[in-house]
């Protein structure tokens, strides 16, 4: 296969958007990615699968004169959301949608990988197609399995997130924190009931909760 062009990438993105899969169940996504990767020039590519994380994929690109190994990661899972966009390539899977842009992220990764399959980089590259970004910590699972060891250990790791608010061709970047994530924290406030006439003998959790939030 020749280098992926604009029309190829649009087709890939729309196909991925039509067939989203939830965390740890990205089997058809994995197969489609693998098929696309295997259609590229394999002269300096090495594809690796992880039996304990069967929907993940890694691709090693051997550099011509490597001084370091650079990692690039893309997420591949979708969200339990019903699509209502009305687009001609809307999700065909009921109740599941690529609502966070992972279809775009995968397409970008494939496009970059395609380029380097035809234009050997100086440094080594590792592409990580990560399952379960939205839940179940697919990246952490891969790390704890020891996936990123030996030649598969990158000196640097990069990724991106699409932002439709930026004009086409623009890249947003800054030092430090750029995006936010969510973490659940459970807090129990234990009070003491009492009579309204004797508030001094009670602990009102409504007041305590308001103070805690403030």
Automatic annotation (TrEMBL):
Superkingdom per UniProt: Bacteria
Gene Ontology MF term list: N-acetyldiaminopimelate deacetylase activity
BP-aspect Gene Ontology terms: diaminopimelate biosynthetic process
Keyword line: Hydrolase
A Pfam family of this chain: Peptidase_M20
Transmembrane segments annotated in the record for this chain: none
Keyword Chaperone: no
PANTHER family named among the record's database cross-references: N-ACETYLDIAMINOPIMELATE DEACETYLASE, PEPTIDASE M20 FAMILY MEMBER
Designated name of the protein: Amidohydrolase
Biological source species: Lentilactobacillus parabuchneri
């Amino acid at each position: 296969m020749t280098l992926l062009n604009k029309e190829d990438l649009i087709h890939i993105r729309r196909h991925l958007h039509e067939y989203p899969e939830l965390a740890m169940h990205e089997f058809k996504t994995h197969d489609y990615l693998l098929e696309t990767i295997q259609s590229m020039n394999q002269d300096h590519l090495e594809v690796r699968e992880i039996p304990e994380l069967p929907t993940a994929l890694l691709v090693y690109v051997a550099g011509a004169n490597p001084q370091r190994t650079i990692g690039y990661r893309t997420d591949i899972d979708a969200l339990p959301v019903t699509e209502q966009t009305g687009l001609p390539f809307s999700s065909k899977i009921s109740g599941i949608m690529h609502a966070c842009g992972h279809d775009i992220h995968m397409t970008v990764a494939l496009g970059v990988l395609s380029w380097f399959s035809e234009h050997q980089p100086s440094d080594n590259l590792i592409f990580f197609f990560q399952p379960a970004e939205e839940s179940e910590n697919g990246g952490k699972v891969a790390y704890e399995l020891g996936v990123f060891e030996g030649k598969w250990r990158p000196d640097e790791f990069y990724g991106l997130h699409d932002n439709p608010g930026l004009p086409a061709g623009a890249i947003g970047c800054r030092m430090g924190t750029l995006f936010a994530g969510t973490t659940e924290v459970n807090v129990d406030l234990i009070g003491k009931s009492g009579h309204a006439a004797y508030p001094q003998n009670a602990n009102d959790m409504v007041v305590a909760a308001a103070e805690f939030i403030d």
